[in-house]
Each structure stands twice: as C-alpha cells, then as structure tokens.
Amino acid sequence: MGIDPYSHRRTSATITLRRADGAPLADSAVTISQQRHSIGFGCTAPEADEQLAPWLELFDTATLTFYWGRYEPRPGVTRHTEMLRQAQSLAGRGVRLKGHPLVWHTVKAGWVDRLPLDEAEEMLRARIRREVSDFAGVIDSWDVINEAVIMPRFTNEPDGVRNAITRICERHGRTGMVALAVEEARRPGAATTLVINDFDLGPEYEDLIEDVLAAGIEIDAIGLQSHQHQGFRGEERFDEVNDRFARFGLPLHWTETTLVSGDLMPAHIDDLNDYVVDQWPSTPEGEARQAEEIVRQYRALVAHPAVASITYWGFGDARSWLGAPCGLARADGSLKPAYEALRELVRGEWWYAPTTVRTDHAGRVRVDGFAGDYRIADGSAEATVTLGAGVTAAEAHLLR
C-alpha cells in the first residue's frame, strides 16, 4: 500500500458522547454525518436560486463580490441590503463567507477618480472600515487587497481620468498600500481573516509578501490565482508554486481557479483580457478535458499541506469572466461532467457518508475521515463536533 497523500487532512478520533445531564450515552444507536471539511472548498456565491441546491451539494465556502464600482456606483448609494440578505442566507446554511475585495484598482468607483487625492484616500479608508464593520459576524474573511503587484503601474483608464487607487498606491508604495488596507480593515475590531491576493505568482509577489511581513503587517493568508484559460498548468506547476509560497509560514488560499470546457485561448495572448471573441462555446471534448483536469488539480492542491482553501471562480457559464466556458454549469444551467467529477471527489471519496453505529458502554464512537465538522444524532438529540486533522479524542453533549 502506498503513502496516503491526504494523511495530513484526516482525523481518526474517538468521540465520547454524553447526554445533556453529563451521563454517557451508552449502548445507543447514533447517526454520524459530515457537515463540511476543514479545508475550504469554495466557489463564487450562486447567482440564481436554481443554482443553490447543486452549489450546496459541492461547496461549503462562498466568495461574495464587493467590487467598489458596483457596490457603491454613486456616493453613499450601496447594495448593502441586498448583499447582507444574501450573506445571511448562505451563512444560515452553514456556508463560510469571504468578501472580495476591499481594495482593487479595477471595477472601482469611477466617481472617486475625480476627487482630490487626499479626499480619495479618505473615501477608500472609510469604504474599507464600513464594509468590514457592516458585515461583521456574517462575513469572516476578506481579500483585503487584490493584485497589488501591478497596482502602482496600472494604466488602463478609458475615461481619461487617472485611477485614484493607482495614485494612492503610488503615494504609499505597494507595501504601504497593503499596510493601509490592513490597518483600516483591523480598525473596526472584528474577528476577520485578511488575505493578500494576486494573479502574479512570480518573484515580485514573493518580494512584496516578504516586505509586508518584515514590516510587521498582519496578513492571515496568501491568496493565489490560477485562471487556466490557456490550458491546465499541471501538478508539478501547482506543487512548485505551493512550495515557494509555503515558505512564508501562512496558509495558502487558491482564491480564483478556472478551467475551460471549450477551445483553449491561444498561447500567444499575454493579457487574458485581450482575447475577445463573439462566442466561446463549451464543447463535448472540452467538457471531458475539464472534468479530468479539475480532479487532477484538486488532488494536487489538497495533497499539499500548506493549502487551506480552494475556490473555483464561477459556478456557471451564463456570467463567466471574459465569457469563457469555465463554469461547472452550462449557460442553460445544466451541469457539466466537471461538476459531477468534482462532487464525486469532494463529497464522495473525501466525505464521511451518514453512518449509523452503536456507542460502547462508555458512550464512545470512532470517526475515521477528513477533518471537519460532524453531526451526531440519536433521533431525539444531536451535537456538532469539529474534528481537526490528527485529532484522536473529542467529547460532545447531545442536546434536544
């Protein structure tokens, strides 16, 4: 038998079950079912009601988009009520939530560009504090700054007005801009995980993280993107990137990953945004390829001990980034083979299916499975217990 590549994800725990009065739940039938994994299996939040059921059958972590230009298209006019309703609905179903992003130079509020620099900076600072404060207790994680590597040299300004976020980053420098974002996000005092996020996985990003940590700036995780519109990058590439960024000692979050189920984008395209076509259909051949590659990708990422979260970017093709057929559902809502393949892995091979067992004389049962949250019920009472990787013993009280 070979070495288990997922041993660092597993728990083999003896759980002592007690009644509400503290007495052991001895010689009783109980049903044990896994509720979610410790590692985050995420996706952008479902955009339509009909997506919710299949979405929940696979994912346990949702990314909600807070692009400033869309969230607050006019000063003081926000989507707060709509976003809070969606966040609370998902959280009520046990979904972990992340907001994306607090600071980004793209899809930003155009009205901020026209402000004097000092005023624009204060608006940015206030926006960060507002979102973290308004959603505290519901959204517990944020991409605090997005794509800071390119931020001070970003020049795509079609309206002719210089990008305010770029100008603020020029003023402070990359490290200073990260410090600004983190400082304001911490100011409300909410318990939140702050992720630095980038598509640039090269030396500049490594240098920035090094500088950020050396300056004592408190980030909680490193975000990595991989939009594979030009083809699957392969297990060796993922391992190499994980190894390089794991040296910082922070959890790695693959915040945006995609694989196309149609023709691949030509290899000579440097900036993915430059590829514009009238139609980019999903094809049977592409869907078969996507299904195979998504399993390979997830196996490689879950096998690496530094990876704490994996987010697939876009559940369906209807509103996919760049119009690419990279979703797990087609534009008509029907599910692709990649969805089924990933579900068989995440909620099949790596999942503890509901199982009925009997406790022993001391109220003990054993669970061997992937680390995560487990529900234990005897028909009249239940308990939820979190079993971390490597945990060997736990206790739970079953309550009505």
Automatic annotation (TrEMBL):
UniProtKB keywords: Carbohydrate metabolism, Glycosidase, Hydrolase, Polysaccharide degradation, Signal, Xylan degradation
Catalytic reactions on record: Endohydrolysis of (1->4)-beta-D-xylosidic linkages in xylans
GH10 domain ranges (all copies): 42-345
Keyword Signal: yes
InterPro entries: GH, GH10, GH10_dom
SUPFAM superfamilies: (Trans)glycosidases
E.C. code: 3.2.1.8
Protein family: Belongs to the glycosyl hydrolase 10 (cellulase F) family.
Record protein name field: Beta-xylanase
Lineage: Bacteria, Bacillati, Actinomycetota, Actinomycetes, Micrococcales
